[in-house]
Amino acid sequence: MNTTELLTITSAIVPEREAIVFDGNRMSFGELADRVNRLTNALGELGVGSGDRVAVMQVNCNEHIESYFATAKLDAIFVPINFRARAEELSFMLNDSGVKAIILGQRYQDMLRSIKGELTTVEHLITLEGPGEGFLFYDELLEKASAEERFPSADEEDTTIVMFTAGTTGTPKGVMLSHNSFSSYILANVEPVDMDAAEKNILTVPLHHIAGIQAVMAAIYGGRTLVLQRQFDEEGWMQLVQTEQVNRAMMVPTMLKRLMDQPTFKDYDLSSLRVITYGAAPMPLEVIKKAIAEFPTTRFINAFGQTETASTITMLPPDAHDIKEGDPDYEKKMARLGSIGKPLPDVEVKIVDEDGNDVPVNETGEIVARGDRLMKGYWNREEATKETLRGGWLYTGDLGYWDDEGYIFLSGRAKDFIKRGGEMIAPEEVEQIIMSHPGVDEAAIIGIPDIEWGERVRAIVVKKPGIEVSMEDVVEHCRPRMAGFKRPEDVVFVAELPRNPMGKVLKRELREQYPEPIV
Question: Global pTM?
Answer without folding.
Answer: 0.82
